[in-house]
Each structure stands twice: as structure tokens, then as C-alpha cells.
Amino acid sequence: MADRWADSHRKDAWRKMAKNSGYRARSAFKLIQIQKKFNLIREGDYVLDVGSHPGGWSQVSVEFAGDGGHVVGVDLEPCEPVEGCVFIVGDITDLDTQKRTIEAFSDSMINAIVSDISPNLTGNWSRDQIISLQLVASVFDFSLPLLCPGGNFVTKIFQGEGIEKLIQLVKPRFSTVKRFSPEASRNSSSEVYLVCKNHVPWKNSGISILSELNKIYTSEDDEDEDTEKSAIGFRLHKAK
Length: 240
Ligand SMILES: C[S@@+](CC[C@H](N)C(=O)[O-])C[C@H]1O[C@@H](n2cnc3c(N)ncnc32)[C@H](O)[C@@H]1O
Known about the structure:
Layout: H1 2-21, H2 27-38, E1 46-50, H3 56-65, E2 70-75, E3 85-89, H4 95-104, E4 110-115, H5 125-143, E5 147-158, H6 163-170, E6 174-180, E7 191-199, H7 209-214, E8 217-218, E9 227-229, E10 235-237
Parallel strand pairs: 1-2, 1-4, 2-3, 4-5
Antiparallel strand pairs: 5-7, 6-7, 8-10, 9-10
The protein binds S-adenosylmethionine.
């Protein structure tokens, strides 16, 4: 009870700070803290903000990319305009949205991808965690071919089954991959950010991260004694 009170008090404090600084969401401070530690966005960068609504990360990305930069935000929900940012409304896993996203960069490569994407949470923890991980894997599959050599990537992930596999799949494509928990999100949930620096596109580029990740899940038809039921009908392989 005391923990929950402290947690909500902390969130309120960040919310108040966001309001006073003109940011639309307290999540803006998470990206600021990630940027301070890892310097993912540089002046003049082309930045893709995935899951951008209401626009806090887009505001921060525009600030760091500066006048010579270009920021494109994609979300299922429309965002109020942010000067220096182009917003696309659509599902990032949908082909038409992906086409519009590529066009918004005029076919130029992207320097930094920042993703705070999070599915609608149902409250069913294992279900939410798996869906979120699959969504993140889809974002990697779509956007990695657009990321320039040396480019950076950060994404929100929820701790749980499959994380180690995802990290193992992503690691060969960057010089460094680290988990980071910014102070603005600490204690709020099991969310953590995966910070990937210096893209090396020539490694493992043909492999789908989502397909590889899905190999740890199996359908109910494949049921055997080494599997354990998950919340959404498919089963998780037990680690051997
Ligand atoms: C935590 S919010 C992002 C907050 C944002 N970073 C900010 O600072 O304002 C997560 C967002 O992911 C979006 N989202 C979830 N699934 C998506 C999908 N398939 N395609 C695009 N956006 C998606 C949700 O609509 C939601 O707005």
C-alpha cells in the first residue's frame, strides 16, 4: 500500500514537471534521461518516433535533432501538431503505414529510432507481456533496414519471458545493447528500455526477429509436456 502511494506520488511529480516544462507527457523525461546517458540523437538527425502519442518523445526528439533534423512520429492515435515533426496515424505493423513512414523520410535513411510503443494493456500480465514483445519485434523488423550504419535505437520492453531471446536476436546487429531504467520510469512497472547503439547492418540482416522470437512460442496443437500454457492460447516452451 505504501509502495503504491509512493509510486503514484512519484508519477504525479513527473506529470507536474512535464506540465510546467511544456511537455505533453511525463514520458518525455524518460527520453531526456536516456539521451543524457547514451546520446542517441545528434544535431541534424533523422528520427523515427514509434508509438508517438501524445507527442512527448517527439517534442524531445525535435529539440535534440535541431533545425537541420527531421522527426516523424507514428501512432494509432492522432497527435496535436509539434513544430518540426510530421505525424502519421496508423498501425506501424501495417504495410500502408510503413509505406507512408518511408515516404515521410523521402527515402532517406534514419539516424535514430526511438520507440515507446506499448499495446493496449488488458491487465492480464503474461498476455500483455507477450503481445508487447511481439510488437517490439515487428518494429525491429520493419525499421532496422531503414536505420543507417552507426544508427541508434531505443525501445521500451516489459520484463518477462522472451526478453533474453529478443536481446540475443538484436545483439549481433549493434555494437552495444544495454537495458536501462530511467529514473522517470523507475518503480512504475516492469518496463525497461533496450538501448542499442551503433547499427551494424551487414550482420544477420536477412533474419526476421519476429519469426525467430515466435519460435519460443508454440500453438496449442503443438502441445507436449515441455510446454506451459500462456494467457493467449499459445504456449511457452519451458527452458531446458
Ligand atoms: C506509452 S505511449 C507513448 C507515449 C509517447 N512516447 C509520448 O512521450 O508521448 C504508447 C503508444 O504506443 C501506441 N501504439 C500501440 N500499438 C501501436 C501500433 N501497432 N502502431 C502504432 N502505435 C502503436 C499507442 O497508441 C500509444 O499511444
